[in-house]
Amino acid sequence: MASDGKTPAEPDAVERIARALPPWLSAVDAVNEAVAREAGIGPSDLACLHEVIVDGPLPAGELSRRLRLTTGAITHMIDRLTETGLVQRVRDGADRRRVLIEAVPAVREQMLDRYGRLDAQTRATLAGFTAREQEVIARFIETSLHNTRALLDESP
């Protein structure tokens, strides 16, 4: 047992996970590319649309931060997505001076439908694990996401 009271990871399991992650991430990227093509948009536009569908409505500054784009680039992206009818600008109910970006409701539903098979497959896979294992998987993903974002914040 490690000094922190946790059982150390098996080197073989760590290696299997480390080897499996890149092709899995590539497969998810391929699904995203297919969804983007189907929607008639590019991958970066899809990333923006994803943010406002999952966590929106969001201010442009927050989208800029999340997507690591300049304010000029995010404004251009929002203009493009607005012109194609995928997102809309709305006034913030709490602060009428602030403008938020949200997915057009019909587009939101279409995008959720496009990801339906991946979502169902992911949920079915997770259902094959115990609640305790699911907690470990969730902790791994959340910690990895946090640490990977920290690496991005460190880069020049």
TrEMBL record:
<feature type="domain" description="HTH marR-type">
    <location>
        <begin position="7"/>
        <end position="146"/>
    </location>
</feature>
<dbReference type="InterPro" id="IPR000835">
    <property type="entry name" value="HTH_MarR-typ"/>
</dbReference>
<dbReference type="InterPro" id="IPR011991">
    <property type="entry name" value="ArsR-like_HTH"/>
</dbReference>
<dbReference type="GO" id="GO:0006950">
    <property type="term" value="P:response to stress"/>
</dbReference>
<dbReference type="InterPro" id="IPR036390">
    <property type="entry name" value="WH_DNA-bd_sf"/>
</dbReference>
<dbReference type="GO" id="GO:0003700">
    <property type="term" value="F:DNA-binding transcription factor activity"/>
</dbReference>
<dbReference type="InterPro" id="IPR039422">
    <property type="entry name" value="MarR/SlyA-like"/>
</dbReference>
<protein>
    <recommendedName>
        <fullName>HTH marR-type domain-containing protein</fullName>
    </recommendedName>
</protein>
<dbReference type="InterPro" id="IPR036388">
    <property type="entry name" value="WH-like_DNA-bd_sf"/>
</dbReference>
<dbReference type="Pfam" id="PF12802">
    <property type="entry name" value="MarR_2"/>
</dbReference>
